[in-house]
Amino acid sequence: MDSILVTGNGPLNGQIPIAGAKNACLTLMPATLLSEEPLTLTNAPRLSDIKTMTLLLQSLGAEVSALQDGKVLAMSSHDLTSHTADYDIVRKMRASNLVLGPMLARLGHAVVSLPGGCAIGARPMDLHIEALEALGAEIELRDGYLHAKAPGGLKGAVHEMRFASVGATENMVMAATLAKGTTVLKNAAREPEIVDLVRCLRAMGAQIAGEGTPTIEIQGVDRLHGATHQVVTDRIELGTYMLAPAICGGEVELLGGRLDLIGAFVEKLDAAGIDVAETDKGLKVSRRNGRVSAVDVTTEPFPGFPTDLQAQMMALLCTAEGTSVLEEKIFENRFMHAPELTRMGARIEVHGGTATVRGVERLKGAPVMATDLRASVSLILAGLAAEGETLVSRVYHLDRGYEHVVQKLEAVGAKIERIKG
Ligand code: EPU
């Protein structure tokens, strides 16, 4: 298993290009299942999760080719040969459950493995099931698989979600594009990845209004056609690299960065003493003066502070002046980076969903272990600012969501290398 060795060595300066969004691409790819005609995605990120989704779609009979070094995904679901998403693939990546809605809409039946537990929380699928049942699907659990069918086809309905789940919104919106009649989804998630999915579906001929608001209305159509769509910028990769100059000092421009994707995060950076300016090409980030100030952070669905940036923000706050309180409201077990940061000299106490971070002057390098995707990158950020060497093991987590992380950080002056093992 590979590791990453980081040596803290002062300010970072230069530019980092931001890739297309992993979580947008993972919902855009299953959209190919809705149409017999080709769907092409440009600006796709080069990540292991994208390869996993590729394998899943291919196992269903879709053709998926990665072109231009993986930045373009050419997909065609003309002939689907299977309607079963196998446990072997689904257990590797929860986003596999996003094939459920499209398959049900296109084929009238689908069998999708339940993903099982996950490092950051239980993550059940009840909200997905309720949403699809509202459209008339019959779903039962047998042998660890959800067996879903819609004998008379899906029918539009009014449905209010109990919680604005990102994945359940995506599954229901995709399914409703081919349902008969009108669907109104209330308390829908508003994440930019959902807006991006709707833009793509609209390019495929879907009739949808209200994306980015809590109410999405979908007028079912008989069929969707082919399209080419550019994947939106990855707001979490963006926020992660914005923290690099925030933690180390210097000035870094994030190419392709957009404020509207991360408003709540930028507000917290400002309160901590980090300047963010819009440029022609993206966003420029620098630390005002001296140590950053402590700030309190509560994770919330979009447009609130994203849970996917909580671990990285904690890395920053470990060296802030004062005490910060971080509340994790989306996942019940998303502080596994805290004990690892503690190994580096951070002072963190976790009680349930609340972490209290007492800032120290400087972290110290240590061998640490990545526990999930965002936790692993928070340890790299902490290592960039720590005294001495930090060896982050189990970096396969990182490869799921960050392309070329070593090259991107090296380009702005970080001392970082991947050690094969
Ligand atoms: N939930 C339920 N029942 C459901 C669905 C969700 O209880 O049927 C709960 C989950 O257990 C969780 C909360 O609702 O506690 C939020 O889950 P949501 O469905 O909104 O998230 P998701 O679709 O599973 C996506 C991202 C996550 C990101 C969350 C929240 C993808 C592929 N994944 O997950 O990304 O944290 O939204 O923004 O889009 C990551 O990239 O590191 C990552 C974990």
From TrEMBL:
It comes from the Bacteria. Its main location: cytoplasm. One of its GO terms (biological process) is UDP-N-acetylgalactosamine biosynthetic process. The modification 2-(S-cysteinyl)pyruvic acid O-phosphothioketal is found at residue 118. GO terms for cellular component: cytoplasm. Residues 7-409 form the Enolpyruvate transferase domain. Phosphoenolpyruvate binds at residues 22-23. It is found in: Cytoplasm. Transmembrane segments: none annotated. UDP-N-acetyl-alpha-D-glucosamine binds at residues 94, 123-127, 308, 330. It catalyses: phosphoenolpyruvate + UDP-N-acetyl-alpha-D-glucosamine = UDP-N-acetyl-3-O-(1-carboxyvinyl)-alpha-D-glucosamine + phosphate. Its EC number is 2.5.1.7. Gene3D superfamilies: Enolpyruvate transferase domain (3.65.10.10). This is UDP-N-acetylglucosamine 1-carboxyvinyltransferase. The gene is murA.
